[in-house]
Structures are given as C-alpha cells and as structure tokens.
Amino acid sequence: MNTELVGKRISENRKKLGLTQEQLAQKINVSPQAVSKWENGRNLPDIENLFLIADVLKIPYSMLTDDEKGELVMNFRSRLFHEDNMFTRVKTTAQLEGLKNTLCALDFMRKKHEGQFRKGSKFATESVKYINHPLMMACHALALGIKDDSTLAAILLHDVVEDTQTTLEELPVSDEARQIVDLVTFRMIDGKTKEESKQIYYDRIKDNKNACIVKAIDRCNNVSTMAGCFKREKLIEYIDETEKYIIPLLRIIKDEYSEYSNAAFIVKYQIISLIESIKSLL
C-alpha cells in the first residue's frame, strides 16, 4: 500500500467535504497530528482507521487503498434493480396467474409508502423509493418459484403496518395474508426487553411456513444492501442477529416445510455468502 498515495487521497477527499484536519481527527477519535502525518505520507493509518476515514469521507475503502495511479473508476449502484421494472414484472405475473391479493397489495403498497425512501448508501447520491424493497423481495420470491397469492401479497405489505399509519384490518387482502403480515411485524412487548421481545417475535414466526419464508427473504434483501448503509457497529450487530435468528429459521424451513426447502437453501447460500464476505472486511 502506497503511504504517500493514501495520504494524498485522504487530504483531497477531506477538502472536498470542507473538513479541517482537526474536524476529521475528532470524527474518528484521533489527534490532529495523526491526520497530518497521514496526509504528509509519514505514517499509514491502520485498517480500522482506514475504514473509519472512508466512512467519514463518504468514499469506498478501496478508493483510499488502491495502488493504481490516477482516478479509481468504480460505480456504485444506488439500487440493484429499478422499482418501476420490478413493479411491472410482479403485476404482469399476478395478472397471468390470477393472483388477486397480490394485485390489490401492489397498488395499496405503492400508495402507503409514497414519499418514503430506503436508507441511502454512503457510496451513492440518488434517493431510492422505499417500494424498491418489497418489490425486490417479491421478484426474489417469484424467481424462487413462490407463487402463493397470500405470501406474495404479504411480502408486498410486510412493512405497511409497521411503517405507515395503517392497521391490519385496512389491508385489502385475505385473512391469511394479514396473518403473515401480523407475524412479521415486530412490536415491543410490555414488560419485556428488546431482546426478549425479539425472541418471542421469532418464536411466533417459526410456526408459520409462509411467515418464515417472508422473513428470510426480507433479511436477504436487507443484508444485500447493508454494507453501503450501516456503520461498522451496526453491521456487526446485524450480522450477529442474522446468525442467531435467521440461519436457524432457514434450517426450520428446510426440515419442516418441504415445499420451501429449495428456496431456503438458495436464500441461506445468499445470506451466508454475503455476511462472510463482509466479515472479512470488518
């Protein structure tokens, strides 16, 4: 790793944000002298500080460490797939398959999440509509061969009750779809800690095969975008929760709900591959 080149890139990107050396030092809890030595090419930040610096400067870690001269050419996606294309795909499939609940859920979900956006990536500037998330989940489910009407409708509506002023009774879908939404909607329980409430939440989910697969696909989509959105501490916390609750949930799907066994294998592979890759960079 080229010490002088790393220092130059820290200096250039710090100045682009209008930060002084003192302000950068304060944000990453080091002395201004340390920042000065880095930028002058006298010392090289350790790996943990390099990640912190990249986070503060809103650039990818590789932009600091790549040894090639000149500008690093790397584009970061604001979204994996565009929500308009996914909406059309889900709607077309629902029409062809006669999935009435899914069709109702599509329009209702889009209306209820209007004006809401996904947590932005630190590597991209474009805002992404919140509906990108449930639509990505629905397309993922379809790709896994899941065409159960109530399950797809619940996927589209899974955050509506939790994130908008909407009750379960207002959801324009079947009682079965409402039950799935209810199960995957997290609520704090009076007299319980957050961790105790979370344990009860997952215990309820595991007794319903459709709620299990909805939650697994939900987590898979969130894991696929978390590296660009979460700080290091949040990444560690989210990975820990995934390994504690979601991986065992996928084992339950495989062992007890045979119709989703293949889907569970693919989702488990996707989640584990992602979190193991991210672990290596933490």
Can you offer a commentary on this structure?
The protein is mainly alpha-helical. Helix content is 65%, strand content 0%. It is built from 15 helices and no strands.
Topology:
Blueprint: H1 3-16, H2 21-28, H3 32-39, H4 47-57, H5 61-65, H6 83-97, H7 100-112, H8 132-143, H9 149-157, H10 160-163, H11 175-184, H12 194-205, H13 209-225, H14 232-256, H15 261-279
CATH uppermost class of the largest domain: Mainly Alpha
Round the mean pLDDT to the nearest integer and report it: 92
CATH topology of the largest domain: Hypothetical protein af1432
Beta percentage is: under 5%
Q: What is the approximate shape?
A: elongated
Following the backbone from N to C, one meets helices and strands in this order, namely HHHHHHHHHHHHHHH
Number of beta-strand segments: 0
* Radius of gyration of CA atoms, rounded to a whole number: 22 Å
CATH architecture title of the largest domain: Orthogonal Bundle
Unreliable stretches:
none
Question: Which class do the helix and strand fractions yield?
Answer: mainly alpha
**Biggest sheet descriptor:** none
Considering DSSP H and I runs of 4 or more, what fraction of the residues is helical? 55-70%
